[in-house]
Design a protein that fits this description.
Layout: H1 15-49
């Protein structure tokens, strides 16, 4: 009786894909932070002008 075991090499990690995913996540965080800052700046400006501040959620980029 002969047992044959097939040995397959392990899959190589796709570092460029992982790097791109990290870059996308970082860009998204930066965009969200910029939107929050812009919203706070507009609210402060509106408050200084005496008009009510309109809160708008940041746009979603997919």
């Amino acid at each position: 009786m002969h047992l044959s075991i097939e040995i397959r090499p392990l899959a190589k990690p796709n570092y460029s894909f992982e790097k791109r995913q990290r870059e996308i996540a970082k860009k998204k965080q930066q965009d969200e932070k910029e939107a929050r800052k812009r919203q706070a700046k507009e609210a402060a400006k509106a408050e200084a002008d005496g008009s009510p501040a309109v809160a708008t959620p940041p746009s979603q980029h997919d």
